[in-house]
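Changelog entry: the Type 4 fimbrial biogenesis protein PilX N-terminal domain-containing protein record was regenerated in this release. Current contents:
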Amino acid sequence: MNMNKESGFSLVISLLLLMTLTIIGLSIMRSGVLSEKQASNIQEKSVSFHGAQSSNNSVIETYRYDQTILAQTLNAKDLKIKTCVDYTGSVTTDCDTTPTIDSATGVLKGGTDTTYRGCPKAFKCVGNSAGMNNQNSVGCNVFQHQGEAWVDADRDGVEDANEAKTQIEQWSLLVSACGNS
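Regenerated C-alpha cells:
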C-alpha cells in the first residue's frame, strides 16, 4: 500500500513538472512570435519609406528627360498633379492601374502629388545670389512633392488599415526662367 502512495506522488510531481515546462515553452514561443511580428512590421515600414522616397525622386528627376510632367503645373500655381512610378522607373500621370514599384507582380504601391508653389527671383534661391537682380527673369521654380507608398499585402490595389504606409514631403527647385506665377 505504501508503494501505491509513492507512485501516486511521483505521478503528481511528474504532471506538475510537465505542466510547468509546457507553460514555459508556450511563453517562449509567444515571445518569439511577437519578435517575428515586430521585425516584419519594421521591414514593411522600411520598404514603404523607400518606396515613397523613390516615388518623389523619380518625379523630381523626370525634368531631365521629360519636362512635360512637371510643366503641367507651371502655369497654375497650387495645381496638384498625381504621378505614379512603376518598377522600371517610368513616371506617369495615369495612375488608374496603380503600378507596383518593386516588380511587375509586386506589392509595393505608391505615388506622388506634386504642387507648383511659385517662382521667386533667383537671388532668393539658395546658392544663386551672385549677379542676380530684380529685373532678371531667372528664378527658382519651387515644387512641393508629397510621396506616399504602401505595402499592398493582400494585392487588392487599395490601402487597408493593416498595411504599412509611409508619406514623405519633399521640396525641389528648378532654376529657369519664371513663367506666370
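The two ends are 103 Å apart (CA to CA).
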